[in-house]
């Protein structure tokens, strides 16, 4: 793997400053996306805990969701909106791709983003009222980037006209992806102080997030012919939401 990979991933997936030489590269974006998730999850979890202690669980949840949107330039939310507009109405493949490439957001996209953010805040508020709050949020953010990294595995189809999809296709090897899963599981055990019951609940939540993102990928493959940059972002937001939702249900 390229040593500049983490910087390339941060350049595309965050607003964090990186050297100019890494800003235009893409080969390291998806392989190192989980590492970016670790950083973003740590920042969001810290703000969530502070907001909870200083104000209320609701304030902590809003702060965490807001900072994630700000640190990612809202790109994943934009991808979610575009994907909802493309996949929502009954339309052909070419028309769906055309709609997704447009700069405006349609009604399906607006409703999807609003409901997704509300659900994330509601679930995180409930989680922050327990000791599972920050580990669940951290896990959700990392799982989102694992779901995005999944689109770089060999054999993943790319939709016609997707520049980003073409550039990152096949950049993630299966052993590398499995290695990240092992690392995340190990960090879950460490972050929960080896509380096996809590670790198991978080692992189930993470699995639910990955499976939900997988369903979205398969839907995009059937309707669009494969993934696009928008679909990658949508998979990330979907995984985040599903992980938080199952975590809140399992309280």
Features of the shown structure:
about 250 residues; mainly alpha; 12 helices; about 75% helix
Integer average pLDDT: 89
SSE order, one letter for each helix or strand = HHHHHHHHHHHH
| Overall 3D shape | globular
Number of helices: 12
**Largest sheet report:** none
Q: From the alpha-carbon coordinates, what is the Rg to the nearest angstrom? A: 17 Å
The count of β-strands is 0
Distance between the termini: 39 Å
Our count of domains comes out at 1
The proportion of residues forming helix, as a percent range, comes to over 70%
Percentage of residues in strands: under 5%
The low-pLDDT segments are none
InterPro entries: CobS
Protein name: Adenosylcobinamide-GDP ribazoletransferase
Cofactor: Mg(2+)
Family: Belongs to the CobS family.
Question: Could you walk me through the main structural features you see in this protein, from its secondary elements to its overall organization?
Answer:
The chain has 251 residues and is mainly alpha-helical. It has one domain. Helices cover 74% and strands 0% of the residues. It contains 12 helices and no strands. The protein has helices at residues 5-13, 20-23, 33-54, 57-71, 75-87, 93-101, 107-128, 133-150, 163-168, 174-191, 196-224, 229-249. Helix 7 runs antiparallel to helix 8 (133-150), helix 7 (107-128) packs parallel to helix 12 and helix 11 runs antiparallel to helix 12. The radius of gyration is 17 Å and the shape is globular. The model has no long low-confidence stretch (mean pLDDT 89). Joins adenosylcobinamide-GDP and alpha-ribazole to generate adenosylcobalamin (Ado-cobalamin). Also synthesizes adenosylcobalamin 5'-phosphate from adenosylcobinamide-GDP and alpha-ribazole 5'-phosphate. Its EC number is 2.7.8.26.
């Amino acid at each position: 793997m390229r040593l500049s990979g983490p910087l390339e991933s941060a350049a595309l997936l965050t607003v964090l400053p990186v050297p100019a030489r890494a800003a235009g590269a893409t080969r390291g974006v998806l392989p190192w996306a989980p590492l970016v998730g670790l950083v973003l999850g740590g920042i969001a979890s810290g703000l969530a805990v502070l907001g909870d202690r200083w104000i209320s669980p609701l304030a902590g949840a809003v702060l965490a969701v807001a900072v994630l949107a700000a640190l990612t330039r809202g790109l994943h939310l934009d991808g979610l909106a575009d994907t909802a507009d493309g996949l929502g109405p009954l339309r052909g493949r070419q028309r769906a791709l055309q709609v997704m490439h447009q700069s405006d957001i349609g009604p399906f996209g607006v409703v999807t983003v609003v409901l997704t953010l509300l659900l994330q805040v509601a679930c995180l508020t409930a989680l922050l009222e327990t000791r599972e709050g920050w580990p669940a949020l951290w896990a959700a953010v990392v799982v989102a980037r694992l779901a995005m990294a999944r689109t770089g595995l060999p054999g993943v189809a790319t939709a016609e006209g997707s520049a980003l999809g073409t550039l990152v296709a096949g950049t993630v090897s299966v052993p590398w992806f499995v290695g990240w899963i092992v690392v995340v599981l190990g960090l879950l055990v460490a972050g929960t102080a080896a509380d096996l019951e809590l670790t198991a609940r978080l692992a189930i939540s993470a699995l639910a997030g990955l499976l939900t993102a997988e369903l979205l990928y398969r839907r995009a493959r059937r309707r669009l012919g494969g993934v696009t940059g928008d679909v990658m972002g949508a998979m990330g937001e979907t995984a985040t939401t599903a992980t938080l939702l199952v975590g809140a249900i399992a309280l």
